[in-house]
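Appendix B, Record 12. Input sequence as logged:
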Amino acid sequence: MDKKKLTALYIFFDVLASILAWVCFYFYRKHIGEHLGFSSIIQTLGGDPKFFWGMLLCPIYWVFLHALAGYYNKIYGKSRFSELITTFCISLLGALIFFFAFILDDIVTTPKDYVKYMLFLFFWQFILTYIPRLCITTRINRKIHNGEIGFNTAIIGSDEQALHVYEMVMKQTPCPGNFIIGYVKVDDEHPDEMAGKLPCLGDISHLEEIIEQKHIEELIIALHNGQRKYIEKIIVLARDKRNITLFITPRMQDVLMGNVKTSSVLYEPLISITPEYLPTWQKFMKRGLDILFSLIALILLLPLYIFLAIGVKKSSSGPIFYKQERIGYHGKPFNIIKFRSMYTNAEEAGPALSSKDDSRITPFGKFMRQYRLDETPQFYNVLIGDMSLVGPRPERQFYIDQIVERAPYYPLLLGIKPGLTSWGQVRFGYAENVDEMLERLRWDMLYIENMSLQMDIKILIYTVLIVLKREGK
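Logged structural output:
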């Protein structure tokens, strides 16, 4: 069964569960609240549009909550215990939201009826949702353990460590679901211990083509210390693909530092390197806050925009706004919008970063840059989804090419949306050359490895303080 069909199966039973839970809840409310018998409730259904609206809207509501929690993201290899906890929590949260939104204004005999309503909805929603999930997940996991379902896997490495990993995976019982179709050579300095054991798919320089041609879903990095210089490039490539699951064999140092986390007691531990920087629910929340705050900012700053537009127009001839192509999410170009702070044709000689005493900046432009007012139209970029409030500052392709030569891991930043402000911006400020861009990159890399809504709020607060105090560069 492919991923789309399996996802559709989970969604189908979630929809069915939400409809059945709603029907049970409706009958229970009528019985408790209006003291109607079963036959009387049946007779009133045709004249009650709420019943049919509930059957239509409840599935949408519950499927949305499950999607927000990321339940449909990783469709294979689900843990039944984790599934139990997730289903329990979402059912409880959903029942509470439903209670305060639709039940709190019901006419009840005693306040205890409210509690009965909420608990009744939670119980049946949880039971009716979890039982089909348990059956499907158990069946799929059994097929994985029996070797009927698996994922095309390649081992990166060819020495004794790669051979050890291969043998370790092959002798594991139950089957972990890896169809190891071959290995990728890294160099010719070490003996090829994998020859004759598995097909050689090629060398590391052709990894991208190998992934595409062989439909690789999982990569296991089995390299010793001298070869770990390749890990950086492999991680960048895997995260750029976004559908590759990446594992790396742990060293004792990783174990001692607490980097090896596993929930399985049956398999050898591997360090999972996931391209998901934020849980799905936090992604939705982050985007929701982006839309909310950018809308509020665009409305509240309208008088300021009028003042700045007049100031730009009077400071020098040329357009009020300045658009410049930047590279955004997953390498997609977009036009960043600013109030023009330089004289027109300031880059006739080619791309050039500005500095503190740049003669290309107009007097009014210097005033705007002092308070970063020229950047405020980018709330529009945030609103339409090109940017986020917080994220690494977007760069031009001209400078990205120079950065990548010295920091090949830079493309990792393209795995998230660029931001109006960033940790690098707070800690380092604007960069005047590629060296300073690399210095700022250190902080942006720290950000993507520590992303959270809490971190975003801190960065926004520090950004406001820096602007008000006229600090930073």
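The longest helix spans residues 112-145.
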